[in-house]
Design goal:
The protein is mostly beta strands. It is built from no helices and eleven strands. Strand 4 and strand 5 form a beta hairpin. The termini are far apart.
């Protein structure tokens, strides 16, 4: 069964904005770190952003820092990724994941144990 669920993907023009959401049905993110990764065809999976649920520590990938913002919604038990000033290079399948990495390991795929199926984001030029 799918353990995490992403939503909010779609088609947007370059320079526009889009917001993604990550949910954990039947679970709580309390005590975990939630990360966003993306993968485009022919490319390796790339770290985007992560937030520690308790305390709110955040880390961003260099390619998105200043444009994307990750946040927690305590009422809905979800994590959002607000994407602004989108570029065609941002087009990819975006996946969320949860785990218990130390801050220095936020960017590492292997630090996360639960993953979603991904949601497609396409940015047109």
């Amino acid at each position: 069964q799918v353990q995490l669920e992403e939503s909010g993907g779609g088609l947007v023009q370059a320079g526009g904005s889009l917001s993604l959401s990550c949910a954990a049905p039947g679970r709580t993110f309390d005590g975990y770190t939630v990360g966003w990764f993306r993968q485009a065809p022919g490319r390796e999976r790339e770290f985007v952003a992560a937030v520690r649920w308790s305390g709110g520590n955040t880390v961003y990938g260099d390619s998105v820092k200043g444009r994307f913002a990750i946040s927690r919604d305590f009422a809905r038990n979800t994590v959002s990724l607000q994407m602004n000033s989108l570029k065609p290079e941002d087009s990819a399948v975006y996946c969320c994941a949860s785990g218990r990495p130390i801050v220095s390991e936020f960017r590492k795929e292997r630090a996360y144990g639960l993953w979603g199926q991904g949601t497609q984001v396409t940015v047109s030029s």
